[in-house]
Design a protein that fits this description.
Elements: E1 7-10, E2 16-21, E3 27-33, E4 36-37, H1 45-51, E5 59-60, E6 71-74, E7 77-80, E8 108-113, E9 116-122, H2 127-132, E10 137-146, E11 149-158, E12 164-166, E13 169-170, E14 173-174, E15 185-188, E16 191-194, E17 207-209, E18 212-215, E19 221-226, E20 232-238, E21 241-249, E22 253-258, E23 265-270, H3 276-279, E24 283-285, E25 290-299
Amino acid sequence: MDAFETVTLRDPSSPLTATYVPTAGMVATSLSDDGVELLGQRRGLQAYASNGKTMGIPILYPWANRLSSMGYGVDGAVVTLTPGTGGVRTDQHGVPIHGTLAAYKDWTVTTLLESQLTAELDFAARPALLATFPFPHLLTLDITLADRTLTVTTTVTATTGSRVPLCFGFHPYLQLPGVPRAQWRIETPAMRYQPVNAWGIPTGRVEQRDAASELLGDKFIDEGFDEVAPGSVFALSGGDRRIEVHFDEGFTAAQVFAPGDDDVVCFEPMAAPTDALRRGGYHVVQPGESAVARFRVAVG
C-alpha cells in the first residue's frame, strides 16, 4: 500500500482536527471532533488514490457530477475526452464523472500553519491537464480550521487570454457516528430542483422546492439543484450533534446525496449544475481576473 504524507490542522479553540492529503488530490480524509470521525471513509484513501472512489471531502474539478457525453465546446475550443486518459473517469453508464483531479499528485503546498493549509495547481504548466480542460489558470485551495469550522476557499485565476469556465464542486461525505441513520435529520434551503434521466443527466424540467427539514429514515436521495442563494445552509443533525454546510459564495448549485449502501449524507457545493460544461449556464473567469468560491463545514 502506498504511503501518503498527511497534514493535520488543529482548531485553536476546540478538539476539532482536519486531515488533508496534498499528494492525493488535496482530499480531506478526516474531520474529527475529539476522536469522533465526522467524514465518511467509504472505501478509504487507497481506493480513492487508485481508482477515484470518493471519500472524505474530495474536490471535483474542472466539473462536478456528470457530463452527458465525451466532449464539450467552450469559446470555439472543442474538447474530446478519453476514459482513462488525463484523469477522465466514467460512471456505470460510461459518462465522464467528477472531473480529472481525483487523487492528483502534483499540488504545491504554499502555506502550512497549525490551522491553515494553502495549496495551488498551475494548469498552464500541466499539458496533461490542459488536454482535457484547455483554459490556463491557477487553482488555489485555502483551508482553515477555527471556531469549530472548516473553511474551504477556492480561487481560480485566469492566467492567459482564455476565459475559464467554473463548473467545479466538492463532495463532503458527512456522518453521525453512534446515531442510527433513520434518526438523522437533514435540512435544506429553498432552491430549484432539476430532475434527471436514468443516466443522472438533467432533463431540462425544473421545480421550485421550499426549505425543508425531514428525518432521513430509510430514504435514498440523489437529487440536483440550482438557484442556491449565497449564504444558504444545509444541515445534518442527530443525537446531540449538528453539522452545517454553509454555501457562502460562488456555489449556486448543489447535489444532495444519501446512498442506500452507506451511512453518509452529502451536501455537495457546485459552481454550476450538472452537465453545465456541455449545456451552458456556468460563470466564467475573465482573462487576468480571479473568482472565489467558499463553503464551510461548521460542527455543533
